[in-house]
Specification:
Length: 314
């Protein structure tokens, strides 16, 4: 734990606790993690847009970098299944690595929308990988299986372990991750490691959260992850990547009570900052303090600040 002035505590991630909390939330995650689902959709839409631009099918957007969207719309990403596009290998990556697959929200979309020779799926929780494995959808799209390089089967390879410590596969074409990097201990070192594992011109596409994320919880409990802001991440990236897309937005999800907020955090597994059991008094204090954030329509907001980045190895 790092103590800052005014008693604010920045928690170093407790990896065993993260594993435990996310493993516990696997069955409830998809129903409750509405913001994370939205983030995965938006990231893939932007990645597809980049791939379309790369083959000259779609004009580049001039607002693509630093667009500060305030959109609160939770929209579903449209599955591509564009056979022609697959045949052009527009959505083909030889080697993909997903870091922190969790309940496999993004994994499912990648399997649907992209084609690959090898897809490495990582999480430090073995339960997550077993959960993802149980989808049994790891076959290449029938329209495109004949396009895979000879001998390649579009294989899915599970890689269990802490992405900060395990050896990452090499010569990757795409490293992708949704709502995971805020949990790592040393993000700049992880970026260097990812950079080394990518091919020249390989793509890193990820989402994480910014400093405004869960600010209500931070104000009440004094506890927070060590979030970076958009500019800081852009600065880190720009040392060895060309930034293709960078965006940040604020999404307020409204609840009827502070208890509902705590339940939401638990069902999404994002209550991994501390192990302590709450007493009835703790709960009452939390509820009392959360009422300071009540909106004019009598709801309690929980602020998410998703950030999105797509970058290409220089
Ligand atoms: C919020 S979940 C995100 C899950 C998924 N990517 C999604 O789109 O919803 C974060 C996941 O990252 C995993 N994770 C956290 N730190 C990790 C690390 N250092 N290495 C590998 N996985 C990690 C957790 O176990 C958890 O499954």
């Amino acid at each position: 734990m790092i103590y800052l002035k005014h008693g604010m505590k920045l928690s170093m991630p407790n990896k065993e606790l993260i594993k435990k909390k996310f493993s516990k939330s696997l069955a409830t995650y998809e129903k409750n993690a509405i913001v994370q689902i939205y983030m995965a959709d938006l990231l893939l839409q932007e990645l597809v847009h980049f791939l379309d631009c790369r083959v000259g099918q779609s004009p580049p957007r001039n607002d693509i970098k630093n667009k500060n969207s305030k959109s609160h719309v939770i929209a579903r990403h449209h599955a591509l299944h564009d056979v022609e596009a697959i045949q052009e290998k527009k959505y083909y990556f030889d080697k993909i690595l997903e870091i922190g697959c969790g309940a496999g929200l993004l994994t499912k979309q990648i399997l649907k929308d992209f084609n690959f020779s090898e897809f490495f799926v990582n999480d430090m929780s073995e339960d997550s990988l077993n959960y993802v494995k149980s989808f049994q959808i790891f076959t290449p799209h029938p329209a495109s299986s004949h396009l895979l390089p000879q001998g390649a089967k579009g294989q899915l390879k599970l890689r269990c372990g802490d992405c900060e410590n395990i050896k990452l596969p090499t010569d990757l074409d795409l490293v992708i991750s949704n709502a995971t990097f805020q949990w790592v201990e040393d993000f700049p070192s992880l970026l260097n490691k990812i950079h080394s594992s990518l091919k020249s011109q390989g793509i890193l596409a990820f989402t994480t959260f910014g400093e405004q994320n869960f600010h209500q919880i931070k104000t009440i409990t004094g506890k927070s992850l060590n979030y970076y802001n958009q500019k800081k991440i852009e600065n880190m990236l720009s040392k060895s990547f060309k930034i293709i897309y960078s965006n940040s937005e604020i999404i307020n999800v409204e609840f009827d009570s502070a208890y509902e907020i705590l339940k939401h955090l638990k069902l999404c597994g994002v209550n991994a900052l501390e192990q302590t059991k709450w007493t009835k008094k703790d709960l009452n204090d939390f509820e009392g303090k959360y009422n300071n954030f009540i909106t004019s329509n009598g709801k309690l907001p929980l602020t998410y600040q998703p950030m999105y980045f797509i970058a290409q190895k220089l």
